[in-house]
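Continuing from the previous page...

OK, I double-checked the sequence for Small ribosomal subunit biogenesis GTPase RsgA against my notes and this is the correct one:
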Amino acid sequence: MPEGKIVKALSGFYYVADGGRILQCRGRGVFRKRKVFPLVGDFVEYQAENDLEGYILAIEERKNELIRPPIANVDQAILVFSAARPDFSPALLDRFLVLIESKQIEPLICITKIDLLNEEDEAAITRYADDYRSFGYKVILTSSEKLANLEELSSHLQGKTSVFAGQSGVGKSSLLNALKPELELKTDDISESLGRGKHTTRHVELISVENGLVADTPGFSSLELTEIEAEDLPYYFPEMAERSHSCKFRGCLHINEPKCAVKAAIDAEEVPLYRYEHYLQFMDEIKERKPRY
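Thanks. Re-ran it with the corrected sequence; updated structure tokens here:
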């Protein structure tokens, strides 16, 4: 049975890419009965009716899926944050990172508009970048004018399915336009791409960029930590996860427990205090969440 990957979903049709061709497919009724619906990014088995059309017969197991945008099997998220206009927000970046870590998606941090900073502020952003690299994250700094380091960014896109996420106005569309000018994305928002106006159907599509696939809609429109449990949160902070085995108690939440290796690292300034403060904020948010039934 031939296999392919769904690269677009629109009006009940799924567009399956297999080698050099794309077939317009419908899902078999069995999916509706099971309440399993194909998503963009799914690897599927299909049956071709002719060179242009076919039916999806089976969906392979997903390694992850997002609700908004509805997409599966994402390899990496490009988190685009500006150094200025709007100002860099480590608290918001950490929220994105936790969400992405929880979905087993590899993050790549891209900080834009470095050229808008004075010397003192640029030094502060460089310190943040060094911090996040020390946690194990990849960080790229770019300017708004020359969009420097595009080659480095493009090398990370190759062979991967990626989503771009971050605050509006940080330069997501400018980055994609620079990588692939024929997209002609409006620079206010990626979601207005491909010429879609306000009255046309919104859909998710994977577009080919630098030998990889990029979702043409922003990721994570909801930033609530609704699917994350308190006992899992420490594992989404890499610098805490690597030290947790040295804590006295298994399952240490790094709050009030004695002989906590994470708190010792913070006291020794091995882990920045702002990361721990964000961790405590997220933990409070999770604990105050209403129980789900």
